[in-house]
Write a sequence for this structure.
């Protein structure tokens, strides 16, 4: 029995969680102060990076962002106030124009805030940002990721982030300063090209930080999964019936941003009541008494 449950648990991880890494290698920016997504060498930094749908793959519920630095980290004392936004975009690069108003930031008002005053965790060369609000990537558009570091002071120049190879156009914007904390709602716009070193200006880069997206897959929700659970009817307007070989402990219903809409629902004759849900698409999370869980996509009519 233990072997069976272990096999099911491994299957659950393979089916429902994925890690997608974009970029490879050990390239770093020659100017450590411009290292993205965060300039650890400066007191404040604001960056945006575009990651392409062709690099990401299917729809997923992004839980964490993992970046990589050149040297194993021993301590990070001045990166404890990090705000992060993620958004879908059709842009493949930033439309920068050399001028005092030429930096082509994608407004954070068009993105979802996924972390407020968060911290970085680190193990060896890996730096992880855990989102407080997961982001539901739709599997078709590109992603823009905005990282705003707001705590004064720096951790020296020992930790430049690994960067991808060059793209044709700018896929990164960054501004950093020891004295001025850039406002993501009203970011600096003085763009002077990729070679500027002034901290009052915005730099554009044809490369971006190597990134691993750690996510829960949304696209597997219709596959045969742990416990071989089936959901009928789907779409539904009032009740759905759940059939499975395992023993269900409770059921949660999440929106596509990973937020719980209904939780700890109990079954009544294998049915749950969804009448209070608004019309739309939801994720049904089935929690088993065996300590496992699985997800299914449902549509409320």
């Amino acid at each position: 029995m233990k072997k069976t449950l272990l096999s099911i648990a491994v299957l659950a991880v393979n089916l429902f969680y994925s890690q997608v890494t974009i970029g490879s290698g050990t390239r770093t920016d020659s100017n450590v102060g411009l290292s993205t997504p965060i300039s650890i060498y400066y007191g404040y930094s604001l960056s945006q990076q575009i990651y392409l749908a062709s690099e990401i793959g299917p729809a997923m519920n992004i839980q964490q962002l993992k970046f990589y630095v050149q040297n194993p980290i021993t301590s990070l004392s001045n990166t404890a106030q990090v705000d992060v936004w993620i958004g879908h975009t059709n842009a493949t690069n930033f439309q920068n124009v050399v001028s005092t108003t030429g930096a082509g930031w994608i407004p954070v008002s068009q993105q979802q805030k996924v972390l407020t005053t968060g911290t970085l965790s680190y193990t060896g060369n890996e730096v992880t940002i855990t989102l407080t609000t997961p982001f539901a990537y739709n599997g078709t558009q590109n992603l823009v990721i905005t990282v705003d570091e707001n705590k004064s002071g720096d951790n020296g120049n020992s930790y430049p982030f690994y960067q991808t190879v060059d793209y044709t156009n700018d896929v990164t914007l960054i501004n950093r300063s020891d004295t001025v904390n850039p406002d993501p709602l009203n970011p600096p716009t003085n763009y002077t090209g990729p070679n500027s070193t002034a901290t009052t200006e915005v730099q554009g880069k044809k490369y971006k930080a190597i990134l691993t997206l750690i996510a829960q897959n949304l696209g597997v929700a219709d596959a045969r999964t742990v416990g071989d659970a089936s959901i009928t009817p789907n779409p539904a307007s009032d009740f759905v019936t759940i059939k499975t070989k395992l023993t269900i402990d409770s059921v949660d219903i999440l929106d596509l941003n990973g937020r719980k809409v209904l939780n700890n629902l109990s079954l009544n004759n294998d049915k749950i009541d969804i009448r209070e849900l608004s019309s739309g698409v939801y994720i049904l999370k089935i929690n088993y008494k065996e300590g496992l869980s699985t997800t299914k996509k449902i549509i409320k009519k």
